[in-house]
From TrEMBL:
Signal peptide: 1-22
Keyword set includes Ubl conjugation: no
Listed name of the protein: Lyase
GO molecular function, one term: lyase activity
Keyword Lyase on entry: yes
Pfam families with a match to the protein in the record: Vgb_lyase
Keywords for the protein's UniProt record, in alphabetical order: Lyase, Signal
Length: 328
């Protein structure tokens, strides 16, 4: 089926549903640890093993690790003004997005050595969110530069794709079956790369502001609408879209998002204080009872799911690192 037809289907099949709450919460426990560097905005954790969580301090210009077993934090300083936004980890080291310094960095934890790979071009080059493909190469968004990028981690070369929609602000990104999917935070569109071309998929409501993405085992792509408080599902084959209003509705401001191994979606409502963690069962199409974040959260911007512990990890604007253990 042609993508133009997919878009037409997408525009005609929107279904808006009010939230239905489940009888009980599938969150067993939320635990938070105070990060020892004040007002540093710890964010975007990455689980690199049973006892090693990595994260960045966006306002503190650092990469850090945390060992839950002994509650030990270790900090690696970056150059002032780096503004790290996100990180991902593999056997080569810790890859971070130098959001304010136009580069992707690679930290070698044993030595502390950092290699920097500068994004080519002129203008805004604010590397935003990174995601590996199956070969260990990196897809990423460039929010204010209005680009999607690809970094070949072996040849150390970049390829960038210009976004056709002006000021779209490509934001959240996931890679599923080596195909990247991108959310435009300032436009009612998702995008993907197909046959080496960037293809945009409009969402039915013009007011939609998709921010983060996730994928479930049935291969559906999910997004949160930060602007109006919806959770949305896109069938990547047919283009069909279905949406559900999140529990706090227009006050929701859903931001961080992740999916687990059981087909549940997880989002954080940041428009209410304290922030609330909400689950959504994609089979029964019901939301769980919202669970307040103990620290309040301020804003939880990104979450990751760890299958080994069946838990979610997140950082908060309250300067904490958190883990939500699940019992769904």
């Amino acid at each position: 089926m042609k993508l133009s037809l997919l878009v037409s289907i997408c525009l005609s099949c929107l279904l808006l549903l009010p939230p239905t709450l489940a009888a009980s919460t599938p969150v067993a426990k939320i635990q938070e640890w105070q990060v020892p560097w004040p007002d540093s905005r710890p964010r975007d954790p990455y689980v690199a093993g049973p006892d090693r969580i990595w994260f960045v301090g966006q306002k503190g210009d650092y990469v850090a690790s945390f060992k839950p077993s002994d509650e030990d934090f270790k900090r690696y300083d970056l150059a002032p003004g780096t503004g790290p936004h996100n990180l991902i980890v593999d056997k080569r080291g810790v890859w971070y997005a130098g959001n304010q310094a136009a580069h992707i960095g690679l930290l070698e934890p044993d030595t502390g050595n950092i290699d920097k790979f500068t994004l080519p071009g002129e203008g805004r080059r604010d590397v935003h969110t990174l995601h590996f493909d199956s070969k260990g190469n990196i897809w990423f968004t460039v929010q204010w530069g209005n680009q999607v990028g690809y970094f070949d981690a072996n040849s150390k070369t970049f390829r960038t794709y210009e976004v056709a929609t002006d000021s779209a602000r490509p934001y959240g990104i996931i890679v599923h079956q080596d195909q990247p999917w991108i959310a435009y935070f300032a436009s009612n569109k998702l995008a993907t790369i197909k046959n080496d071309q960037l293809v945009e998929l409009p969402l039915p409501r013009k007011q939609t502001l998709p921010r983060r993405l996730a994928v479930t085992p049935d291969n559906n792509i999910w997004y949160v609408d930060y602007g109006a408080g919806y959770l949305g599902r896109v069938n990547p084959d047919s283009g069909a879209v279905k949406e559900w209003r999140t529990p706090a509705a227009q006050n929701s401001r859903p931001y961080a998002m992740a999916s687990d191994s059981k087909g549940w979606l997880w989002l954080v409502e940041t428009g209410v204080q304290p922030n609330r963690l909400v689950g959504f069962n994609s089979q029964t199409e019901t939301f769980s009872e919202p669970v307040p974040i103990p620290s309040g959260g301020g804003a939880i911007r990104h979450m990751v799911y760890d299958a080994d512990s069946h838990s979610l990890w997140f950082g908060t604007d309250a300067n904490t690192l958190g883990q939500a253990r699940l019992n769904n």
